């Protein structure tokens, strides 16, 4: 039967008090007034009525008085009874509370000092300390309780409660073993009691601190399994035995020496005898056992005697515990009373004299256990491993030693390492010199870390192809000449990697499931692997290593025991390993110093570089020659109708591919990105690719508004009237350039652009535009683009809002870097070529025969300019139409100048000049509408004149029956700037 300790819940710390005694009630007196009152009342009635019958009421007085007195006495007796019942209930509650507190007090005592039966049946690992004078439990007895009750006792009931509170029954009787203990009584009983004491000391004191010397005989054979062999000695003496023999191997040779922690070797005696006179002198405690449940205890110098129930332990129980303790001691590094080494250089471990080329094993020595060298084999024991360890536990040093040993035992063509460090990258720097290392990935380059791990899926496919071509199912069956070695992926701080890149957990699970036969092995290290490892990983990671961890739950999850949580802080490299056989074994990890790693590097200095499972990142600057080479080397030929403008990164396929755009298949292209992200470069790359493919007419917007307007309207008109032929429209900074235009021009330009996006592809017009923010273009334009290319955006959220993949966002992307079809992209650095100067309009012509009409926003300033140029203009003012017409009739060549209001008021003159005269408009739309004929302003279907680059220095000139064209206005440097608004 298993013995269990009962520890009641914490009770109140409020003080206890005796209930108060009810005071003696006062005896009720005779109610004289109640007796006199009816007599007086009957006399008054007799005098008033003269009726003798009223005197009969006088008899009620004594009757009521007697009844009142009797009722008062009844009430007194009742109150006394209620008070006594209340006090009795209070005493019952007090006794119950005392019982609860006694149970709690006894439970705490037993928890601090568990008896041998509980230690044996509990199953917990021993809590070995360094103090030889550990307290032991002799049995149970009634002892003085720490509970106190306030108040003075009033009667026997109070005294009984106080006596109950003072006595704690079934409490442990604890003594220190260092003073020596004598056990007197029948042989079988004293041996059982001594057996319980030995087990308690063995559980409390470490094996390298104490050893046991026990009598010969079958009753003590079990003690030979105890792992204790320290310098301090516990000697069990039996006068009936001739001598005492050591209980643990090696104690004979270490009978002297010093106790760890200081002080000479100690010897403590537990003496057994049938009679007290046979005990050696000087024992501090003597227990006389009268029966299985009866014994007395006497202390030296104390005349009192304590009656107790002695604690005893059977042979089978003790033997079972000794065997379990020996196993635990071996796993914790106690071997013959000694600990594992605190420091283990890797040079002290065996290393093969000649590297092996066998693919069927990866067995190497990585540390030392109590029984010898610790070897781990990722092939036979794995195929994967999990390593846990908190900061300062030696986790990184263990990984370095393992990598060094694997590299020393196998050439690079048989074993390669991919090292991923998510705590800065310094952990694996010592082994970076090894030719076996394919690369070191750190969290300082998040994009590189993600690429490397994603590339592992492509590595699995590559290995599957190699095995399929060789006709085998396992890498260990490949012929020696097949160039395929095992790949060990070591990830330090695996938890941090998964938390940052959630999707990589699926990649690791895939490798864990398929890596065994393909020769890909995972070594996943983390401070707390609990909760971040999926079922696929844990099911295939048979090798479990736990160095020191912070709590027992982490240790239990990794190695099935809490021993890793009990490792001292000053023992880096100490850990517990489960090699896949379900047996946790303590070990000391080796340390690989720089010289040992350099030794391995020199051995393989002439080896070829190992095959990297991933390509380098895309270059920050992609030269046109490099793109051309990639196009030539591309496994998939670039179609003639597609424009190559960059390279795509495909880490999951272990390759790069050419980024192409086909206007026919992909539709119009919108390039989005922040300022400086390479939008203009991308459009230039498309223009260069288009010119290289065929002769094409390129129209580029994004320069001067006037030229952009003219080019856009001309292209929109050409769609309607010209035959289809290849043309390319490039609109740079489309959202910004149109926003600066006047409203009427911007609306017209948007309408023209929408028409080109809808109908241009049928007429051979390809459209590619760039913008900073897509929503600034308006829904009508934005939705007409068939493809979107995302360059660097200002933030991850902005990229996601624009429709890009936020996982591919990087703050420090160079110009031209972005994403295309959910792949990382680098655009070629195309040369834009020499800038072409904008065509300058001709100067305005005022020398026409006949009348020249000028509508201007600044008539006075323009008069000065015209007179300075040698003209004699007439000023048209509101109401002066008749005088102006008369002046025109008298001269063949007249220049008439007026503002919009003047021309609007001169209706007859305006109608005359609109159809037959040269018109000049120097101002804005108000002046244009006031003077120009309706047809003059039409450009295709847009009733607007050309957009002026500078309204002060440019104007519109309209010939009779013609369209408005841009002209340069002749000005003088001295002309006063008195221009009014439109």
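Q: What amino acid sequence fits the structure above?
A:
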């Amino acid at each position: 039967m298993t013995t269990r300790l009962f520890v009641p819940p914490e009770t109140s710390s409020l003080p206890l008090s005796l209930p108060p005694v009810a005071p003696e009630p006062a005896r009720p007196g005779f109610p004289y007034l109640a007796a006199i009152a009816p007599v007086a009342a009957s006399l008054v009635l007799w005098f008033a009525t003269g009726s003798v019958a009223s005197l009969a009421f006088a008899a009620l007085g004594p009757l009521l008085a007697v009844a009142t007195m009797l009722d008062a006495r009844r009430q007194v007796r009742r109150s006394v009874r209620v008070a006594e019942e209340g006090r009795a209930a209070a005493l019952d509650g007090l006794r119950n509370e005392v019982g609860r507190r006694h149970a709690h007090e006894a439970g705490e005592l037993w928890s601090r000092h568990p008896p041998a039966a509980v230690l044996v049946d509990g199953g917990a690992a021993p809590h070995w300390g360094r103090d030889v004078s550990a307290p032991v439990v002799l049995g149970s007895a009634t002892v003085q309780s720490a509970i106190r009750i306030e108040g003075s006792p009033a009667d026997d009931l109070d005294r009984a409660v106080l006596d109950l509170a003072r006595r704690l029954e079934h409490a442990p009787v604890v003594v220190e073993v260092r003073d020596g203990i004598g056990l007197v009584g029948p042989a079988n009983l004293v041996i059982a009691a001594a057996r319980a004491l030995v087990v308690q000391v063995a559980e409390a004191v470490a094996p390298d601190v104490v050893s046991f010397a026990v009598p010969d005989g079958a009753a003590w054979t079990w003690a030979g399994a105890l792992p204790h062999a320290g310098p301090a000695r516990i000697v069990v003496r039996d006068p009936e035995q001739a001598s005492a023999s050591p209980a643990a191997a090696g104690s004979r040779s270490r009978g002297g020496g010093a106790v760890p922690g200081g002080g000479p070797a100690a010897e403590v005696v537990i003496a057994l005898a049938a009679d007290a006179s046979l005990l050696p002198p000087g024992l501090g405690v003597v227990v006389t056992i009268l029966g299985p449940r009866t014994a007395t205890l006497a202390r030296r110098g104390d005349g009192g005697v304590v009656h107790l129930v002695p604690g005893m332990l059977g042979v089978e129980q003790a033997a079972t515990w000794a065997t379990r303790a020996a196993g635990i001691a071996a796993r914790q590094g106690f071997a013959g009373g000694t600990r594992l080494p605190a420091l283990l250089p890797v040079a002290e471990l065996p290393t093969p004299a000649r590297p092996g080329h066998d693919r069927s094993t990866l067995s190497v020595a990585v540390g030392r256990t109590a029984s010898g060298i610790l070897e781990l084999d990722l092939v036979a024991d794995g195929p994967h491993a999990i390593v846990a360890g908190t900061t300062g536990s030696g986790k990184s040093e263990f990984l370095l030693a393992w990598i060094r040993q694997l590299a020393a035992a196998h050439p690079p063509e048989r074993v390669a390492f991919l090292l991923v460090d998510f705590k800065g990258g310094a952990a694996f720097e010592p082994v970076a010199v090894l030719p076996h290392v394919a690369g070191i990935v750190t969290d300082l380059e998040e994009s590189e870390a993600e690429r490397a791990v994603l590339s592992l899926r492509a590595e699995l496919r590559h290995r599957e192809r190699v095995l399929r071509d060789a006709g085998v199912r396992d890498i260990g069956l490949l012929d020696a000449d097949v160039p395929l070695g095992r790949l060990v992926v070591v990830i330090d701080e695996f938890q941090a990697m998964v938390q940052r890149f959630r999707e990589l957990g699926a990649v690791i699970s895939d490798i864990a499931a398929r890596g065994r036969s393909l020769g890909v092995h995972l070594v996943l290290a983390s401070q707390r692997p609990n909760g971040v490892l999926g079922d696929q990983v844990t099911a295939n990671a048979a090798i479990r290593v736990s160095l020191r961890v912070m709590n027992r739950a982490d240790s239990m999850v990794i190695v099935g025991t809490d021993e890793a949580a009990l490792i001292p802080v000053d023992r880096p490299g100490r850990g517990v390993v489960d090699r896949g056989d379900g047996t946790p074994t303590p070990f000391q990890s080796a340390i690989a110093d720089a010289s040992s790693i350099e030794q391995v590097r020199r051995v393989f200095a002439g080896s070829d570089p190992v095959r990297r499972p991933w390509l380098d990142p895309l270059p920050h600057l992609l030269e046109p020659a490099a793109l051309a080479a990639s196009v030539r080397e591309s496994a998939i030929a670039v179609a003639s109708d597609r424009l190559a403008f960059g390279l795509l990164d495909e880490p999951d396929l272990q390759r790069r591919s050419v980024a192409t755009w086909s206007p026919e298949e992909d539709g119009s292209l919108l390039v989005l990105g922040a300022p400086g992200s390479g939008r203009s470069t991308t459009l230039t790359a498309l223009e260069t690719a288009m010119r290289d493919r065929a002769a094409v007419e390129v129209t580029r917007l994004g320069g001067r508004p006037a030229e952009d307007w003219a080019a856009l309207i001309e292209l929109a008109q050409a769609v309607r009237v010209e035959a289809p032929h290849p043309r390319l429209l490039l609109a740079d900074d489309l959202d910004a350039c149109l926003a600066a235009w006047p409203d009427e021009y911007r609306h017209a330009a948007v309408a023209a652009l929408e028409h080109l996006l809808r109908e241009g592809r049928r007429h051979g017009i390809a459209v590619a535009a760039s913008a900073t923010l897509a929503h600034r273009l308006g829904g009508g334009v934005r939705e007409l683009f068939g493809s979107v290319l995302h360059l660097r955006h200002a933030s991850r959220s902005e990229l996601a809002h624009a429709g890009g993949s936020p996982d591919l966002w990087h703050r420090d992307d160079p110009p031209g870097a972005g994403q295309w079809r959910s792949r990382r992209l680098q655009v070629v650095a195309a040369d834009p070529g020499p800038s072409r100067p904008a065509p300058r309009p001709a100067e305005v012509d005022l020398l026409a025969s006949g009348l020249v009409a000028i509508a201007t926003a600044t008539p006075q300033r323009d008069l000065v300019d015209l007179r300075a140029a040698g003209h004699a203009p007439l000023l048209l003012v509101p109401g002066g139409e008749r005088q102006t017409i008369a002046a025109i009739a008298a001269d063949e060549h007249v220049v008439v100048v007026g503002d919009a209001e003047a021309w609007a008021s001169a209706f007859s003159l305006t109608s005359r000049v609109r159809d037959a005269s040269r018109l000049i408009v120097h101002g804005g739309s108000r002046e244009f509408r006031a003077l120009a004929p309706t047809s003059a302003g039409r450009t295709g279907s847009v009733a607007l004149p050309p957009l002026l680059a500078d309204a002060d220095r440019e104007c519109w000139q309209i010939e009779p029956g013609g369209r408005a064209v841009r002209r340069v206005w002749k000005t003088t440097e001295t002309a006063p700037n008195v221009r009014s608004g439109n």
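Q: And what stands out in the fold?
A: The chain is about 35% helix and 20% strand.
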